[in-house]
Amino acid sequence: MSSISIPIDMLTSRFNFGDRLASMRSGSLASRFSNMRPVSEFLDMKRVNKPNNFAEMQSRVNYNLGYFYSNYAVVFSMLAIYGLLTNFWLLFDIIFVTLGMYLIGKLDGNDFEFG
Predict the structure, then answer these.
(1) Contacts of 20 (CB under 8 A, 6+ apart)
(2) Which letter does DSSP use for residue 15 in this model?
(3) Any stretches that span the bilayer, and where are they (predicted)?
(4) What is the pLDDT of residues 31-84, one digit of tens each?
């Protein structure tokens, strides 16, 4: 059976996920949440508008993931706890996503060799 090579770096390099995952592992819990942005700034719907093109969308996503990282982590944690309290089978999905993020971070930008 032939092996399949998936260029993970091609998918993650545009949004800089590798560096984000590396910085997430290196910092303490207190330092990760020290830059929490106010809820009024995080949910400011007056500043939301449609991007003009794909490059602008990539730029916005990249900036927002870095700027609101702690807010997104808190929202994910709250949704995970709510989901676990209301649907125990969701635990499998959360473990799967978390493990996937960890394994992608372990690739360090190298291609994934399958088979």
Answers:
(1) 65, 66, 69
(2) T
(3) 65-82
(4) 666 777 777 887 788 888 898 999 888 888 888 888 888 888 888 889 888 878
Amino acid at 70: S
Report CA-CA distances (Å) from 109 to 24, 90, 112. Answer: 16, 29, 9
CB 32 within 8 A of CB 73: yes
The residue whose two tokens read 């020290």 is 34
CA distance 38 to 22: 25
Using CA atoms, how far residue 85 sits from 47, 73, 98, in Å, is 34, 18, 18
Picking from 106, 108, 101, 103, the residue whose alpha carbon sits closest to that of residue 13 is: 108
- Which residues does 6 contact at the CB level (< 8 Å), separation at least 6? 111, 112, 114
